[in-house]
Design a protein that fits this description.
Blueprint: H1 3-47, H2 55-69, H3 77-85, H4 95-109, H5 116-133, H6 138-157, H7 160-170, H8 180-197, H9 215-249, H10 255-271, H11 281-287, H12 296-310, H13 317-331, H14 339-355, H15 358-369, H16 374-386, H17 401-411
Helix pairs in contact: 1-4, 1-5, 1-6, 1-8, 2-4, 2-10, 3-6, 4-5, 5-6, 6-7, 6-8, 7-8, 7-15, 9-12, 9-13, 9-14, 9-16, 10-12, 11-13, 12-13, 13-14, 14-15, 14-16, 15-16
């Protein structure tokens, strides 16, 4: 081999390993800080129930910060997807502190939201800064954005394999550079181990008993997975509906989370329970051993859709976990399958349906619950994927593939109308 070619290949390899390392370390460190800060905010809210009455003030602060400093960043994850599909401008670095601030305020005062969106946006904003530093073209910039998504997802949930696959599957129907595959995995693991280095712990779940797979069991899994897919569809539609309603009725953006915060605070007061505020992780953990009320998942959909639609910040994924786990837990009353298995299947299947990422969700389920549950998890994610409609939580995601064409054939018109 020519010496110049060897030098060129070595430089190419070194450059991308360096980029992956920088993105992984910086994104992982940002997620570690975010997880610690989020836990502090959540515990502060739990210890001071009265603080929920400040939710409108928190909403106003978020609304003003985005209106005056983050008009582009307000698109959140959709901005990353839009820039991947059609590169225009660099993701502003200020997206990272803005979404961090907005999410912490949302959780401090009791908004119902998640954390994945924050980590992915921080990862994407950090990663895209290296496009200019390393003088990368638009084709390589696509790889950079994948790395940012991968790092953010892997570090926030402690699932490096799922994080790498999620980033790739999310944009699978756009043009993907082949080198993005190994680089996505490398970045995800670096981000994951960075969080481990900072000694920040993730929540652990368990499915202690896996039944034998037979025809009856398969039929029950398919039935409940259809319900998981319908829950995902309802969640996605709810979030988009509230967002459009607030945009249509309140012209001045900062007032949307302010008014939304007033309504949420009053609603939580009359419900008399804080189980639908914040992430709801304790409720998710309990769902694996104690049957939930059949309305828990519906109220979480309502409050999360309203919170995010009003303009509060966070993410959708942990609320999707809540919806799926509590729905599966509630179904254990009538479905002859172990409660932990039902909760675990719902946990990832609703996520699969809402994001159109069944492969990543299957891998995530095995990372979280063990490979023994893989067949059940995979079947649940696949069925939920097909039964959740063609519109997911990310409005800018390009949807193609078998589900899209199946719906198109069934309805004889584009699947976007479903």
């Amino acid at each position: 081999m020519d010496l110049e070619k060897i030098k060129k290949n070595l430089f190419f390899s070194f450059k991308w390993i360096l980029i992956c390392s920088l993105i992984g370390i910086l994104s992982g460190s940002a997620s570690a800080f975010f997880l610690v800060a989020l836990e502090y905010m959540s515990q502060t809210r739990i210890a001071n129930n009265w603080i929920i009455w400040l939710l409108p003030i928190g909403g106003l602060l978020i609304g003003l910060s985005y209106h005056y400093w983050g008009k582009t960043a307000v698109k959140g994850n959709n901005l990353l997807l839009e820039e991947y599909a059609n590169p225009q401008k660099a993701i502003p670095l200020k997206m990272a502190p803005l979404v961090l601030f907005g999410t912490l305020i949302t959780h401090l005062f009791g908004g119902s939201a998640g954390r994945e969106g924050t980590a992915v946006q921080m990862g994407g904003a950090i990663a895209d800064q290296f496009t200019q530093i390393f003088k990368l073209d638009n084709f390589d910039r696509k790889t950079i954005l994948i790395l940012g998504i991968s790092a953010g997802f892997a570090s926030i949930f402690g699932t490096p394999l799922a994080g790498a696959i999620f980033a790739l599957e999310l944009v699978i129907f756009s043009k993907i550079n082949f080198k993005s595959f190994p680089l996505s995995f490398l970045t995800a693991y670096i981000a994951y181990f960075t969080v481990e280095f900072w000694q920040v712990k993730h929540t652990h779940y368990s499915i202690p008993f896996i039944p034998e797979m037979d025809l009856k069991t398969i039929l029950w899994v398919i039935l409940v997975s259809i319900l998981f897919g319908m829950a995902a569809l309802l969640f996605s539609r709810s979030t988009h509906l509230w967002g459009k309603l607030f945009s249509k009725t309140i012209a001045y953006p900062p007032l949307r989370p302010f008014i939304g915060g007033i309504i949420l605070a009053i609603a939580f007061y009359f419900i008399g329970s804080s189980k639908y505020t914040g992430l709801g992780v304790p409720i998710i953990v309990d769902a694996f051993s104690v049957a939930n009320a059949p309305y828990d998942f519906l109220l979480k959909i309502l409050f999360t859709g309203f919170t995010l639609g009003a303009g509060f910040k966070g993410g959708e994924v942990t609320p999707l976990f809540f919806v799926g786990a509590t729905l599966g837990s509630a179904l254990s009353i009538v479905v002859p399958l172990p409660i932990a298995l039902l909760a675990g299947m719902g946990f990832v299947a609703v996520f699969s349906g809402a994001t159109h990422t069944p492969i990543a969700c299957t891998v995530m389920g095995m990372e979280l619950f063990g490979v023994e549950s893989g067949v059940f998890i995979g079947l649940a994610c696949l069925v939920a994927y097909f039964s959740s409609g063609s519109i997911g939580i990310y409005s800018s995601q390009i949807i193609r593939g078998p589900k899209y064409f199946l719906y198109q054939k069934l309805r004889q018109k584009p699947a976007d109308f479903l």
